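can u pls check wat happens w/ 2-acetamido-2-deoxy-beta-D-glucopyranose
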Amino acid sequence: MRFSFLLPLAIAPLALAAPEPAPVPNPVAAPAPDSTGLLSELPTILSGVQSLLSQDTISKLETIIDGAAKLLSSDNIVVLQDILGNAHTLLTKEFVDNTTTLIGDATPLVEDVSKLLGGVLGSL
Ligand SMILES: *[C@@H]1O[C@H](CO)[C@@H](O)[C@H](O)[C@H]1NC(C)=O
């Protein structure tokens, strides 16, 4: 056996030529892209949406949308435009300021009347 030491050298190229074993699939799942913030809220949001989309809610929404569609007839749109126009005219800065002042002035009066009534009722 003078050349037995050559045997490993002789088969080494065969071992190198042997096909690689098939890669074992990584049993560990890739990490979730983001488990914080909005993504973590998603299940809650989806279940909320799901309960919103119950048959009952959908029926109610149909009623509302139906009603809104009827409200938005061309006649009513003119009326609504009038109302919104008037409200818009009413809600000038001066009106809001005056109303705020009025409410501010009325508040102590209401408090006084409330105390007065409380006193009167308490004495009965
Ligand atoms: C605001 O109040 C002033 C002073 O009381 C008054 O002259 C004015 O007409 C008021 N304006 C509105 C829009 O209410």
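The chain is about 75% helix and 0% strand.
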